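Tutorial, part two.
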Amino acid sequence: MPGPLERGSSAAVGAARTVVPCGRCRDAARRPSRRSCAVSQTTQGPAVAPVVSADLYVEVQSFYAHQMPLLEGRDLVSFAGTFTDDCVFGYEGAWQLEGREALIGGMRAAIPRYGTSTIRHWFDGRRIEPLADGTVRVTATALVSVTDEEGAVTFEPSCTVTDVLVRTEDGLRTRSRLIRHDLDDPGRYFARLAASQA
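Running the prediction step on this input gives:
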């Protein structure tokens, strides 16, 4: 059995001041200072990242390695099975589904637009944050590629995906998923998408 969730704060502790040297300072392997490097910049950043145990990190990565291929393989019932019964799945500024059955229905309505093309989901910068209530918040940037039978590849708008995972008797499950597309007006994007399928 996987170990218990590690508790930790998602808030940054303090702020670190980082000096960013110019190329000349880096090349000379000198420590930049305000007097020796006029183009150095001081930036603010989090000093401490959320603490995540190795067991939890591997467990979360393994969960997604199992979950997303189910969607890509169009096994929608099994994909929905990785969510809780009362899950919430939505796109910020566009639409939201509540409950596993609604999720299955929404996926069945959306998948046909891809035809026989192959769908892949590419995630980067996955941030795992154990929360005080025992859940885990996972945030990542994502890109969806669509490859048709001729090998032509298109991409959907990049996005940020924020999940809340809970532990069940069957392991981790997704309680909520919020997707934020890198668009000023996601609603208009989905409206155009729906019109193109009409």
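Residues 15-46 form one domain. In part three we will examine how such features are distributed along the chain.
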